[in-house]
């Protein structure tokens, strides 16, 4: 089966600085693939290149068999950025309604998807509140709801649970597991080790390179402690 996301020898240079260096990775349907690494490692740039928001200096990115960037693929990708892109003077429901319209959702389907997305992130009771009054965590939850609105084939989430309480974080990961069962292709960036352990495949990112790839168990097995955190440190020392 052909992967839904393919990255081949990707390099990105911004302002004469090399951000990504010879990155190769592939994500299939029915899989949660995690990118783990410290801030500044290149995870967000890699995600933007996959979505089509950052142009490759060399190499290539294909999503759903299409070379990126490509506007025709955008409706089939659910994307949650690290920074919330919300209309703060509108209510949460108005934001969801606006983005649903952008995805050409109409009538009963639009209502059903808005209800589903709001329930997923536990915002149903707050739908009529203006986003300006939301906490940072509530804004993250609304951004996540928007990313799943159109029932995308590919879901790309950049640090989706930052600022979200542990109970809701658990329910979100349970829903991601359900979406995986439906055959969704899910790419998640995180710097939280317990979230990384929930992924089917992991890529450890440091200094713009993928320093190791494999299942969490495979990567953890490279250490005497069998801990993922120690594996990341060990691979980092090898890379240095």
In short:
This protein has helices at 43-51, 92-102, 107-120, 136-148, 166-181, 193-196, 216-220, 228-239; strands spanning 5-14, 17-27, 31-36, 58-63, 66-67, 77-80, 154-158, 185-190, 201-206, 209-214.
Q: What fraction, in percent, of the residue positions are helical?
A: 25-40%
CATH topology: Rossmann fold
Oligomer: single chain
Provide the domain count.
1
CATH architectural category: 3-Layer(aba) Sandwich
Biggest sheet character: 6 strands, mixed
Strand and helix order: EEEHEEEHHHEHEHEEHH
Count of helices? 8
Q: How far is the N terminus from the C terminus?
A: 35 Å
**E-strand count:** 10
Strand content: 25-35%
- Top-tier CATH class: Alpha Beta
The structure class reads alpha/beta
Flag low-confidence runs: none
Q: What is the radius of gyration computed over CA atoms, rounded to a whole number of angstroms?
A: 18 Å
């Amino acid at each position: 089966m052909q992967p839904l996301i393919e990255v081949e020898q990707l390099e990105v240079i911004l302002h004469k600085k090399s951000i990504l260096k010879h990155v190769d990775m592939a994500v299939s349907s029915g899989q949660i693939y995690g990118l783990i690494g410290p801030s500044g490692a290149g995870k967000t740039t890699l995600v933007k290149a996959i979505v089509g928001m950052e142009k490759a200096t060399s190499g290539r990115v294909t999503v759903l068999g299409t070379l990126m960037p490509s506007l025709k693929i955008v409706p089939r990708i659910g994307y949650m950025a690290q920074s919330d892109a919300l209309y703060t003077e509108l209510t949460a429901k108005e934001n969801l309604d606006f983005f649903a319209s952008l995805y050409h959702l109409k009538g009963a389907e639009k209502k059903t998807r808005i209800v589903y997305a709001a329930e997923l992130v536990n915002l149903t009771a707050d739908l009529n509140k203006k986003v300006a009054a939301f906490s940072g965590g509530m804004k993250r939850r609304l951004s996540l709801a928007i990313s799943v609105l159109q029932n995308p084939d590919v879901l790309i989430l950049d640090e989706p649970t930052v600022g979200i309480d542990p109970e809701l974080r658990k329910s979100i990961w349970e829903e991601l597991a359900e979406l995986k069962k439906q055959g969704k292709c899910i790419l998640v960036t995180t710097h939280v080790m317990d979230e990384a352990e929930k992924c089917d495949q992991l890529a450890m990112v440091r200094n713009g390179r993928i320093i190791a790839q494999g299942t969490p168990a495979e990567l953890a097995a490279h250490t005497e402690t069998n801990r993922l955190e120690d594996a990341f440190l060990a691979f980092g020392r090898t890379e240095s």
